[in-house]
Amino acid sequence: MTFTRRLFQTLAGATFGCAACAAQAHFQMLYVEDTAPQRGDKLEFALVFTHPFSGGPTLVMDKPRAFSQVSAHGSKTIDLRQYLRPVQWQSRDNQATAYRASIPRELMRSLGDHIFVLEPEPYLEAEEGLYIQQFTKLIVNVGGVPGDWTEPQGLPVEIQPLSKPYANWTGGVFRAVVLADGKPVPFAEVEIEYLNHAVDIEQNSFGQAAYVTAPQASFNAQSTYADAQGIVTLGLPRAGWWGIAALDIGATKTHKGKPLSQDAVLWVQARDMVPGKDSGIAH
Fold first, then answer.
1. Helix, strand or coil, per DSSP, at residue 51
2. 102 close to 115: Cβ distance less than 8 angstroms
3. Cis status of the peptide bond prior to 104, with omega within 30 of 0
4. N-term to C-term CA, the chain
5. CA 20: distance to chain centroid?
C-alpha cells in the first residue's frame, strides 16, 4: 500500500469515523445529593449537560423530551416534565441553560427503588457537525428495601446495572450490561468520568476547586470496552459520583440530516466505609 493511499485512509477515517469520537467527555448529569435516603422526602434534581471531571464547560440544554419516574416495585410510571424548570448553571468556565426539578414528597414515600429516566433533546455539537443524545438513568432507593434496580426500562439505549448503583463502597467493583433495543451490545465503547467538583444545587453551580488533580488530560475520562456479552466491569476508587456512558450504540444514526450519537448513561454513587464509633477500629 502506497504512503498516499495510507494517508488518504487515515484522513477518511478521521473525517467519517463514528460519532462517538466527538461525544467523548460530554456527560448528561442527572444529579441528586443522596441515592440511598433512609425515608422518602422531597427530591431536588439538577439536569446538566457538561464535562463532570473538569467542572465545565456547561453545554446548553433544550427542554427534555421526557423525564419520568418508575415508582417503587414498578407500580406506575410518572411523567415528571411538569416539575422541570430552566436555570442558568454556573460552571468553572461559563454559564448555560440547564434544568432543575423538585419532586414532591408524595412521589417518594414508597420504600424501595425509584428509577428516574431522562431523554434529552439531541444536542448539536457544532464544531463537529453532529448531534449527541444521552439517555440517562439514576436509581434512588428509599429505606433499604429491595427493589427493581436491575430491570431494564425499554429505552432505545441503556445501561442495565448488575450491581446496585446506590449501594457501593469505595474501592468496590461495579458491573453492568450495555443494551441497545433491549439486546446486549458486544464490545461497546464505554467512558467513565468522576464528578470532580462540588455541586451547589441551590445556587445552580459547580464549586471552583477540584477534588483531585489529573496527572495528564487522558485521566479526565476513563475509557474501556464491554466484553463479548456487553458486560462492563469497573472499579470505584473514590467516594462520590461516577458517570458511565456507552457511546454511539443507538440504531438511529442521523438527526436533522447530521450524524447522531445515541449514548446510554448511568450514574453510580460510591461511599467510604467509615467505622462506627464503637467498632474499636481507628478512623
1. coil
2. no
3. no
4. 63
5. 15
Is the preceding omega at residue 57 within 30 degrees of 0, hence cis?
Answer: yes
Whole-angstrom Cα distance, residue 196 to residue 53?
A: 5
| The CATH number fitting domain 20-271, selected from 3.10.310.30, 3.40.50.10610, 2.60.40.10, 3.30.160.150 | 2.60.40.10
Are 125 and 22 in contact, with CB atoms under 8 Å apart? yes
Q: Enumerate residues 6+ apart whose C-beta is below 8 A from 273.
A: 169, 170
Residue 149 CA, distance from chain mean position: 15
pLDDT digits (tens, 9 = 90+) for 246-283: 999 999 999 999 999 999 999 999 999 988 765 444 44
What is the rounded distance in angstroms from the CA atom of residue 242 to the CA atom of residue 245? Answer: 10
Residue 45 CB contacts under 8 Å (≥ 6 apart), including other chains: 30, 31, 32, 99, 100, 101, 102, 103, 116
Distance CA 133, CA 119 (A): 8
Question: Which residues make beta-bridge pairs with 80?
Answer: none
- Cell triple for residue 199? 455541586
What DSSP state is assigned to residue 59? Answer: B
Q: 265: closest CA among 134, 146, 154, 143?
A: 134
pTM for this model (two decimals): 0.89
